[in-house]
Amino acid sequence: MNGLEPTPTLRDLAAKLRVSVSTVSLALRNDQRVAKGTRERVIAAAGREGYHLNPAVAALMAQVRCSRRVAYRETIGWLNLWDHPDTYTKQGVEFQRFLWSGARDRAHQLGYALDSFWLAEPGMTARRMTSILSSRGIRGILIPPLPSSSDNLQLDWDRFTAVTLSYTLDRPKMDRVIPDHFGNMVTILRRLARLGYRRPGLLIPRGHDERGGHRLVAAYTFAQNALAEDDRVPVQVCHPSIVEREVVIWLKKHRPDAVITLGKLKHLKTMTGIGRAYLDRLGLVLMSLAGSDAGISGINENPAIIGAAGVEQLVLSLQRNEHGLPEHPRLIQIEGTWCDGQTTPVPRVVAGQSRGS
After folding, report:
1. pLDDT tens digit at each of 357 positions of the chain
2. What's the CATH fold of domain 74-172+303-334?
3. Residues with Cβ < 8 Å from 164, sequence gap 6 or more?
4. Three-state secondary structure call for residue 261
């Protein structure tokens, strides 16, 4: 004998509380079918008595419950605030498309369905969308990146548990699964330094850094501070459709040997007003590679993995019967993958290069 008291069972707790074993089991899973007062009493008693859930048994029971849902799949709602109902299947929006497919496939693997709901539909309101989701029995919501950053999205959040896949939704605060913007920028800068680039510059559309929680510019600025002062290149913020004159002035003044930017600005190497020889040897790196960017160096942000991870976090909350907004929102960041391309050859001139060359 080791002198330790045996761990109480569900049956022990039920007998002590004078309720059924099923009531104790449901209460410990925070199931809303059990009255709130009873749930609190059961949870408090479990803590006092030292009851611990057996992970192996819990996993087995989750599998059993899942196997009973073959004919019916609970639906997870995907809120579409873009200007078209099938944004997530259209060509040209690869990041969104891969987010959707990754989330859909993982939902199916876990026994759920994923259905898109068009919140930007003419005449649609937050109140009506809340009613639609509730009438469909939807408890879990995924919110992909919005077309523009939003201060608030007003649904009756007490009815749902939600996970967002970006920083474009500022409020309400909820669990987030996002690209590791800071880490991805650090990876880019380290890779360029390893290749021999000494004066990387960041060209970013106005408003894009906000979509990443200001992490891209933060990482770039942090790295710039470690460079010799003569090698530092200030961030150039430009109009999303690129104002060539501003960019040409920036390139002429600071002479970066590589530019880190986005796919919509990748044509900067064809601009006029600056020497062809300089543009030909200018390195080009994209912060977020898309399917149409073959041959360009940059970061694959792994959107399918982000979508899948968002579903996993949401399902975990659903299985715990959590609802409403979390008191302490969680943040999960997914590392990107560097992809070598033809746009970052080893520089022909490195150390000692003059800024005007």
Report:
1. 344 556 778 788 788 888 887 787 777 777 777 788 888 787 888 778 777 665 545 545 555 555 554 456 899 999 998 888 887 776 557 888 999 999 999 999 999 999 999 998 899 998 999 999 999 999 999 999 988 877 678 899 999 999 999 999 888 999 999 999 999 999 999 999 999 999 999 999 988 888 888 999 999 999 999 888 999 999 999 987 777 889 999 999 999 999 999 988 888 888 888 899 999 999 999 999 987 788 999 999 999 999 999 999 999 999 888 889 999 999 999 999 999 999 999 886 543 444 433
2. Rossmann fold (3.40.50)
3. 142, 143, 144, 174, 175, 176, 177
4. strand
> What's the CA gap between 191 and 148, in Å, rounded?
31
Question: Could you give phi then psi for residue 88, rounded to 5 degrees?
Answer: -85, 5
State the pTM of this model: 0.79
**Domain definitions of the chain by residue range:** 10-53, 74-172+303-334, 181-300
Collapsing DSSP states into helix, strand and coil, what is residue 323? coil
Residues 6+ apart with CB under 8 A from 203: 236, 238, 247, 250, 259, 260, 261, 265, 268
